[in-house]
Specification:
binds guanosine-5'-monophosphate, alpha+beta, 4 helices
């Protein structure tokens, strides 16, 4: 079920538990502001999720409330992971599903990083 992007942050969500090390994930990068790990159900040869370490429900919540240093750190981490994965020359796609129409399932902001093949049209037709 998609989440309500205006809901309060719930620190029992699955990505909060991954951040706390309570459940495993195939981690690829971590710094002060962000953690990146492989999606459990990859939809492309490379499908990585990048999450901020702070408690933000969605892109809306993050962009409205996060301090500038956290926003900069998170954006830089996404770019760093894409470079580290060798995705810049072939190209890649970022996606941040937000709330009901966005189809967001996990109520902790995550950016999907897709690559490894031509990704086709931006939305299903
Ligand atoms: P959303 O639809 O919220 O944008 O995407 C949530 C993503 O999280 C999905 O692609 C789903 O496969 C992934 N996911 C859900 N639970 C887990 C988990 O426990 N571990 C990992 N690594 N990915 C998960």
């Amino acid at each position: 079920m998609p989440i309500d992007a205006t809901q309060a942050y719930d620190d029992t969500n699955i990505f909060a538990r991954i951040l706390r090390g309570e459940i495993p994930a195939r981690r690829v990068y971590e710094d002060d502001h962000a953690l990146a790990f492989h999606d459990i159900h990859p939809q492309a040869p490379v499908h990585i999720l990048v999450i901020p370490k702070g408690p933000y429900v969605s892109w809306d919540d993050f962009s409205a409330r996060a301090p500038a240093a956290e926003i900069a750190g998170f954006v830089r981490a996404v770019g760093h992971v894409a470079r580290e994965q060798g995705l810049v020359a072939p190209g890649y796609r970022l996606l941040a599903n937000t709330g009901g129409h966005g189809g967001q399932e996990v109520p902790h902001l995550h950016v999907h990083l897709f690559g490894g093949r031509g990704l086709g049209p931006m939305l299903a037709r």
